[in-house]
Request: fold
Amino acid sequence: MNQHSINLNLGLYRFVMRIQEPMELPEFKGGVIRGGFGTTFKRLTCYMDRGSSTNIKFTCDRCKTGEQCPYKLIFEPSPPAHADRLRNLQDIPRPFVIRVPSDSRTQLMPGDYLEWEIVLAGNAMKFLPYFVVTFKALGENGFGLWRKGRRSKADLVEVISLQPFTGEAVRVYDGDSNVFTNQDHHVVTEPAIAGVASRIQGDSVTLNFVSITRMKYQGRFVESPEFHVLIRNLLRRVSTISYFYQGTGLDLDFTGLIELAQEVACENLSIHWKEWRRYSGRSRTTMDFSGLMGRARYRGQIDKFLILLLYGSLLNVGKNSTFGLGQYVVEW
Reply:
């Protein structure tokens, strides 16, 4: 994989919320964060539903605004009519990822803080103000699980732009003044990721799957993260996001990389299956989100895949990546 084969820009932002009232949350908070964001975002932006303050009745396929609607572009995207490939996809990956905190607390008290991170891909970075306004409104209207007939209020304190590979940070939104305080956001670029990859030595690397990961191969969810399965899923995800949100395809030999990936050995260090079922307010059904977690070591020609693996550490991998599933850490 050459140094300029992906060319996808990413923005990483940490949201910090201060709790006003006792709040109940599930152990895995990605579903609550994503669900609250989606409902509030649509309520704030959907012009077709102005007559209803609580029920989101309309679907995007009935919308006359189409590709001009921020909600549709971010939360219910579909391939544009002019797309010269992948037009057969009914849905495409959303251009954002919620990175959930490793925080097992299920009860928060006034004065406690809750943090999570949002990754925005390509041209979706320009929609950061929509995320800020939406999460601010979500906190004001009520956040978390239902408690005594309502949700709990919270304040959006700040939003910080992060450079994940250097630790640099700059505040881009201040909740006290309710303004963007600095527009010099950190942007994660392919050359920066390639620089990190060049510092990883040896023929092995370990991935720590810190959230439930649901990767499919031959129509089934896998219980072991074999390397070629991981690479197939990453190539599909990163190439689709790059094409639709950066306007560039990946200059990669997909077939050759998959064949090479099949030669990389996978050692199970602590991989286990984690059961998780979640109620979806949108579909009004209980859905199975079970998958694998834990650490796996890969040994072989790893250097050919390091850039892709580092991109995946920000974009997640597999099904339901948007609300925090498929999150892993590259260890070396």
Observations:
- The helical segments are 30-45, 70-75, 128-141, 190-197, 227-245, 254-261, 306-315.
